[in-house]
Each structure stands twice: as C-alpha cells, then as structure tokens.
Amino acid sequence: MKKIGFIITCLCLSFSVYPQQKKPKQTKEFTTNNKTITVYTTADNTKLRLTPTDNLKFSPSKQPVETEISVFVEPSKKFQTFIGIGGAITDASAEIFAKLSKEKQTEFLNAYYDTQKGIGYSLLRTTIQSSDFSSGSYSYIQEGDTELKTFSIEHDKEFRIPLIKQAIKAAGGKIPTYATPWSPNAFMKTNKSVLKGGKLLPEFYQPWANMYAKFIKAYEKEGIPIWATSVQNEPMATQTWESCLYTAEDERDFLKNFLGPTLKKEGLGNVKIIAWDHNRDLMVQRANVIFSDPEASKYVWGMGFHWYETWTGAQPMFENVARVHEAYPDKKLIFTEGCVERFDAAKYQFWPNAERYGTSMINDFNNGTVAWTDWNILLDQFGGPNHVGNFCFAPIHADTTTGELIYTPSYYYIGHFSKFIRPNAVRVSTSVSRSYLSSTSFLNKNGNMTTVVMNHTDNEITYNLIVATEKTVVKIPAHAIQTLVY
Predict the structure, then answer these.
(1) Which of 192, 197, 270, 467 could form a disulfide with 73 if both were Cys (CB 3.0 to 4.6 A apart)?
(2) Where does this protein have coiled-coil stretches (predicted)?
C-alpha cells in the first residue's frame, strides 16, 4: 500500500507541475468588425495613380449568385510570411542617380523607399562585379590573381555604394540586401572571357567561392550587411554580356563542396544562399537536382527566379513556381529579376508593361513566393547605360538632358503591393469567381488586411469583396489595379 501511495503522490506532483507551463501566445484572429475599407486605384486613361478613391463599409454577406463577380478572402487560412519588395541598384542606376540634382535625388529616394511619400521598397539587390548594366566590364581583382591579393571594391565606392547607403537611410536605416555575380574573372573560365557564357573551370571553384566571402565582408565593412547571395545570375544563358553557365549538377557541386563550406568557414553561415536565379521554365528540374541532395540542400535557403521564359513567345510558367513550392515547402521562393525588355521611349506610358508586373506579382505570391525584386531602379532616357546595348525599361527613368524624372505605370503597379504589404505580413487565402480579375491578400503585423485586385479587361467591373461572412461592393475601372486596406 505504501508503494501505491508513493506512486499516486508522484503522479499528483507531476500533474501539478505541467499546468504551470505557459501556453503559446495565440495570434489574434482578423475580424472585419468596425473596419472601414480604403480603396486606392491606378487606372489607364485616367489621372488615378495610387489615388484614394473610396471609403467603404462591410455588411453581412449572403450567398453570391453566379451572375455576380466576387473576390473571396478567408483570413483564417494563412500561408507564407512576406519578406519584402524592391529593386536592383546596379552600376547603371547609380551612375544616372549621380547626375541628378540634389532635389531630384531626394525626390527619387522618397519615391522608392519612403512608405508615406513613396512606395516603401523593403528589399534591395545588387551585383558582384559588373553586369551588362554597367558602363563597362570590371573586376575586383587583377587577372590571374588566384589568391585574391589585389581584391578591392574601390570601383563600387564611386557610385554604387553611396546610392545603396542613401537607399538604406531612406528606407529607415535597414533593408535586406542581396548580391549576385554575373561572371567570374576571364582567367577562371573556359572561354577566357567574362562575356558570352563559358564555364567556371574546376581548378578555380575555390578561388571563386573565396570571392563571395571577400565581397560580403568588404560590403559589411562599408556598413552594408549582405542578407543573401545567389550562386549565379541566369546560369543557363549564354549572353552577349557577363554570363557563366552551370548545369544543375555543376551548381549543386559548387554549392555543396565550395560555396556553402567556404561561407561557413569564413563566419558567414548566416548569409542565405539562393539557387538558380533564372527563369521559371527550368526551375523545377533545378530544384529537383539541388534540393534532393542533402549535402547541397543544407546550404541553400531557397530558389530565385526570373520572368523571361516568355522570350520564346510562350506564356509565363507561373505553375512551375507552385510545383517547386509543393515539392520543397521548406525552401523559400524569391522573384529575383524582371524588367520590360527592348526599350522604346514612345512606350513610357504603355499600360501592358504595368499589367505584366501586376499579373506576375499576384501569381507569384499566390504560388508561395516570399519576396519580389524588380531589376534596375533607375535608367536614363535611352534605357541604359548598358555596355552591350541591352537597353530596357525601369519603373522610373531620368532624362539626363532636362534632369526630370519619368514615372512609368509600372512604378504605380508595383507600389500597389510594396506600399501596403509590409515585411512580416502573412498571405491569406484569396480567390476570384471570374478570370476578368486577379487578386492576392496579405495580413500585416499591424492587423490591417491588404487585398490587391487587378482588372485587365476593357470594361469597368463591379465586384463583391467577401471577407469571411462580411462583404462590400467595389467598382474597378477598366485596365486598373486597386489596393483595399481594411
């Protein structure tokens, strides 16, 4: 009997201990109670540019009928956590920025990085060595220097680093910055050129891996922490500009045997590594090869992708983003580059360019993407400078003859996301009842929901916004995008 009493006493003591443990803090569920909806609109053939156009209220929702068009938001169904939206500070962008007056420089920085005066960019990409959007090719080391004794980022200190520092300041003092190489040095490659593809020679895998570490440390010394690096920009494209080719197996082996271990050894294991950094077309195959290898996968944070698979005339492969997310849900997805190709000054205000951004961003976010980065944040009136003539559009251009800034519709379409969806927001379930509209929603940390709705048709559309069991009715103009904050 004494033994039984002892056991009962122990059990009682054990049960008395565990209830005292703190329960996990429950996240407060979103509600539409007492919420008003502020609608911001940008529309073709109007003066509406991120303009507040309506203040609406919720009312109880009944079953919608098939003749109605509806956007359905279910706040209880949550998905990926958002990191940010931004653009690339290239040499070209920095060189043009330096030509602006102080007044226009301030306007430009506010336009991109200020959350009140502008569209609140919260992410930044830059290059390791030169890209095509530089006035010329350059390197951080002298040719043949396998030990990197001549390594220096003095080139970047003239234009690029000063602009990055000002962007960080304008963004509130902190912005995740990631860097991408376009090509190793000529002596390290099979074609002995930084241009036109070629491959990294195996004997230079280690010196090239050392370059990433040197770059990251040099930028950190300048007060620019590097959040992440990708292995190689567009590793399957032989370009007329700086480029380098890696098969999936090449990238896997470089990652697991050189880049990953080198960053860890150099005390940079916290720097995220992004694989692929190329178009959506081959991303599933690249993910299968790299992420299915445990030794390579352990070093990789996620996968970057671009939108240029349409160069063949085919449609964007949005579903491939979803396929990677389904197969490797522990890996992050980040859109690392997109721009409108083939610059034409007559098309500054060409609306389909903006709609390309809206379509891509909505689809990419709905397929699991956590961050989205545009290409050059600024180019001149010729779509450059670009040392191989690959002139493109940017959301903002500067006319260097007049000193004026030219805002394209793409700037405003990006702003409908970046201004209102803030870092650490969580995507929630959103669907539409007709293909005339597309939509995505994020719940911000401050408790506000942001729903973006895009109308790519020639007609004004009246739609229901149905959030759980509440609704409101909204009108969206033809060829327009709206952000609803509530």
Answers:
(1) 467
(2) none
Size (the chain), residues: 486
Q: Which of 25-29, 50-54, 389-393, 446-450 has the lowest mean pLDDT?
A: 25-29
User: In angstroms, what CA-CA distances link 404 with 99, 245, 283, 307?
Assistant: 11, 39, 40, 29
Read off the DSSP letter of residue 434.
S
Annotated catalytic residue 68: no
Q: Is the pLDDT of residue 147 over 90?
A: yes
Contacts of 474 (CB under 8 A, 6+ apart): 37, 39, 54, 56, 453, 462, 463, 464, 465, 482, 484
Is 337 among the residues known to form the active site? yes
Query: How far apart are alpha carbons 378 and 111 in whole angstroms?
Result: 11
Cα 137 to chain centroid, rounded: 26
CB 163 within 8 A of CB 97: yes
What pLDDT score was predicted for residue 29? 87
For the record, the structure tokens of 186 come out as: 């000529």
- Which positions ≥6 away from 137 have C-beta within 8 Å? 130, 194, 195, 242, 387
Contacts of 250 (CB under 8 A, 6+ apart): 199, 200, 235
> Kindly report the CA angle at 446 between 443 and 447, in degrees rounded to 5?
50
Residue 72, strand partner residues: 431, 466
- Residue 407's CB is within 10 A of a number of other CB atoms, namely 15
Q: What interhelical angle do 318-327 and 351-366 show, nearest 10?
A: 20
Tell me which of 251, 337, 355, 470 is the catalytic residue. Answer: 337
For residue range 432-475, list pLDDT tens digits in order. 999 999 999 999 999 999 999 999 999 999 999 999 999 999 99
User: Which amino acid makes up residue 118?
Assistant: G
Query: Which CA distances in Å does 199 have to 131, 237, 297, 397, 410?
Result: 16, 11, 22, 34, 35
Output the DSSP codes for 240-262.
Answer: SSB--B--HHHHHHHIIIIIHHH
Which among 319, 256, 246, 301 has a CA at the least distance from the CA of 278? 246
Distance CA 33, CA 59 (A): 10
- Candidate list 95, 234, 242, 470, residue with the active-site label: 234
Phi and psi, residue 262, nearest 5°: -65, -45
Q: How far apart are CA 192 and CA 325, in angstroms?
A: 37
DSSP 343-411: --GGGTT-HHHHHHHHHHHHHHHHTT--EEEEEES-EETTS---TT------SEEEETTTTEEEE-HHH
Q: What is the mean pLDDT of residues 244-272?
A: 98
DSSP single-letter state for residue 195: B
247 Cβ neighbours under 8 A, 6+ residues apart: none
What are the start-end ranges of the E strands in 51-166? 51-57, 59-60, 70-81, 84-88, 123-128
